[in-house]
Amino acid sequence: MRTLTLLIFLSWVAAFGRLLLNLLLVPRLRSRAPRRAPLVSLIVPARDEERTIERAVRAFLAQTYQQLEVIVVNDRSTDATGAILAGIDDPRLVVITGEEPSPGWLGKPWALAQGSRHARGELLLFVDADVVYAPEAVEAAVAQLEESGVAMLSLFPRFEMHGFWEHVAMPNLSFFAFVFLPLWLGNRTRLPILGAGGGPGNLVRREVYDQVGGHEALRDAVIDDVALARLVRRGGHRSTFVRGDDFVSVRMYHGLREVIEGFTKNAFSAFNRSYLLAFVLALGTGLFHLFPYVWMLTGDLASIATVALISLIRLVLYVALGYRIDNALFGHPLMMLVWGWITLRSVWYTGIRRQVRWRGRTYDAKATKFGAD
Question: pTM to 2 decimals?
Fold first, then answer.
C-alpha cells in the first residue's frame, strides 16, 4: 500500500508540473490591432437559444474589428430564437434559416457547414450561441493569428458560474485541460492528438478549412470543435490554443441538471466509446482522485501529502482563472463524483442504449464518433 500511495503522490507532482508549464507557456490573448484586416465571417449555430442569443449576437456586432460579418444559422428553432434575431437590425448580420440535417449529419456540424457556405471571409470564426465577446476580442484574435502564422486559433474562455453546483462541476473542464493536458507542448507540435479547440472560438483560415474538408469531414462528430483542430493538424497545419478569458465568457449550463444532461452526450465519446478504456479511467479516477481522501484518514503520510498537493494545484489554478477559492480547497472529491456520474450516465445512454441526445434531436450513437479520428 505504501508503494501505491507514493506512486499516486508522484503522479500529482507531475500534474503540478504540467499545470505550471501550461500557465507559464500557453499564451494569453492581448488587446492589439492586427497588421492587416482580412474579412472575418463569424458563424454561429443557434437551435433554441432564446435565453442567450440576443446578448451573444449584440456583443459580436459591437466588436471594434470592422471587417466583420456575423452569420447566424437558425437551426430549426422551436422557441423565440428566430423572432429575437429578426429584431436585431444590422447590415452585418446574416440570418440563415437552416434546413433539417441531411442523412449522416449531426445537427451542429450541419448548421456550421451551412454557415460556412454563405461566408465571404478570408477567416472563419466558429462560435457557440451562448458565448459573449468583449469588444476587442475579434481584433485581438486576428492579431494573434496573423502574428503566430498558424492555420487555426482556439480561444479558452472565462466560465460564468452561478450557484453551488455550477461552481463544483464546471471547473473540471479547466482542471482537466490545464492539469492533465500538455497544452504548452501541443502548441509546439502538429500532432493531431494534441489539437485543442472549443465552442468559445475557433478562428481558422478559409483556405485551410476548405483544404481539410471543413465540416463535411466532421458531419458525424459529437465533439466537433476539438475535432476541427485535429482535422487541421491532420492536414499538416499548425493550430494553437490561447487563453482568451479576458475577452471571452460563457455560461454553458444553468444548474446541475443541465450540466449532467449537456455532458452526457460527450463523456463516453471522449473515450472512443471503449468500455475497457472507460473502466480503466474510472478505476484511475477512484485511485488518483478519491482514494487519497479516504486513505489519509488512516494517517498515511503519502496520502495526506497527496491531498495537500491536490489542494495546492486547485488553489493555483483557481486563482489564475478567477474561480472561487473555497471550492478550490474543498470541492475536489465532490467534483469528481459528479463527473463520475456523468460518465456512467453517458455509458448507459450513448453506449448501451446507443442514443446521443442533442438539442431536442436523438441520434444513433453508432453513427457518430468523437471527431475526425
Answer: 0.94
